[in-house]
Write a structure and sequence with these properties.
Helix content is 37%, strand content 19%. Helix 5 packs across helix 6 and helix 7 runs antiparallel to helix 8. The radius of gyration is 19 Å and the shape is globular. The strands form three sheets. The chain has a five-stranded parallel β-sheet with strand order 3-2-1-4-5, with helices on both faces. A three-stranded antiparallel β-sheet has the order 7-8-9, covered by helices on one side. The chain has a two-stranded parallel ribbon with strand order 6-10. It folds into two domains: 163 residues, Rossmann fold (3-Layer(aba) Sandwich); 94 residues, Pantoate--beta-alanine Ligase, Chain: A,domain 2, CATH 3.30.1300. It has nine helices and ten strands. It is α/β, with parallel strands linked by helices. The chain binds adenosine monophosphate. Adenosine monophosphate binds next to helix 2 and strand 4.
């Protein structure tokens, strides 16, 4: 891959890069289509990175289907797929990691210790191997995007980071490879994540700005569905991820919910002004067309 990247650079090509863990859905394909706009060569990686999974998490069971992924990638014009084996990325004596000080302390950090260290480290390694000018990440993993942006700035990596809006199923569920784990009944309960965010948007539009009230409303809605267990519901600063008391400007509402044995995440930016409930479905959320 490094030789191929060097060859592309020598011919003056701009490299756009989309790192993934595979098992593609429309969210991944949206990132690739965005990547296509930013580079002469579009490289993606498929790597289920062991170091970002904690003990007892779903590393072993994470869905994999490289053949299907390859044909989907081809259909959106991917030039190179990099799918290394774990032992090619981490040898036995491996000991170097990237740790950020503050951003991993919030949201998913406490319930997934070491996760963002694993993410920041593997993304840095992938950047060094693929040598992209531009890299594309989804806003579905908002905290991850923020951490990558911060890391790129802190380390002066010469890579432009592009964020892509969340791609949703027709009913609003954020697409995720992990949705594949859900039973039919759990799938219905999984909709509570999107619905609680939507409810919060509407509440803010009605002039209620109190973060606690918004969190309470979202939590009640989620708990009213069977199989759900809240990990966190947060209303916070979209740059620092610190909790806020009020929604006075664009504010991140983020949540993680266990639905059965599947942990799902979702988020939205709450905006106190220029919001109309009727425009919400069509403009604030990108819903997959069927
Ligand atoms: P993953 O394979 O789940 O690690 O995701 C690879 C990339 O796709 C990450 O940048 C994710 O944020 C992004 N992604 C995953 N699901 C979605 C989605 N529903 N909408 C937009 N981006 C997504």
């Amino acid at each position: 891959m490094q030789q191929e990247a060097k060859r592309l650079l020598q011919t003056g090509k701009t490299i756009a890069f989309v790192p993934t863990m595979g098992y593609f859905h429309e969210g991944h394909l949206a990132l690739m289509r965005e990547g296509r706009k930013h580079g002469d060569a579009l490289i993606i990686s498929i790597f289920v990175n062991p170091t970002q999974f904690g003990p007892g998490e779903d590393f072993q069971g994470y869905p994999r289907d490289v053949n299907r992924d390859m044909s989907l990638a081809e259909s959106v014009g991917v030039d190179v797929i990099f799918a290394p084996e774990a032992k090619a990325m981490y040898d036995k004596a491996y000991q170097t990691h990237i740790d950020l000080e503050m951003l991993p302390r919030y949201l998913c950090g406490p319930s997934r210790p070491g996760h963002f260290r694993g993410v920041a480290t593997v993304v840095t390694k992938l950047f060094n191997i693929v040598k992209p000018h531009v890299a594309i990440f989804g806003k579905k993993d908002y905290q991850q995007l923020l951490i990558i942006q911060r890391m790129v700035r802190d380390l002066r990596l010469d890579i432009k980071i592009v964020g892509v809006p969340i791609v949703r199923e027709a009913d609003g569920l954020a697409m995720s490879s992990r949705n594949n784990y859900l039973s039919e009944n759990e799938r219905r309960s999984a909709l509570s994540l999107f619905q609680s965010l939507q409810q919060a948007q509407e509440t803010v539009a009605q002039g209620i700005r109190n973060a606690r009230e918004l969190i309470r409303g979202a939590s009640e809605l989620i708990r009213s569905y069977p199989y759900t267990k809240i990990d966190y519901v947060t209303v916070c600063d979209p740059e620092t991820l610190e909790d806020v008391d009020r929604v006075d400007g664009p504010t991140l509402m983020a949540l993680a919910v266990w639905v059965g044995k599947t942990r799902l995440i979702d988020n939205t930016i709450l905006k106190p002004s220029n919001y109309s409930g009727s425009k919400f479905q069509g403009s604030r959320f990108k819903v997959r067309e069927r």
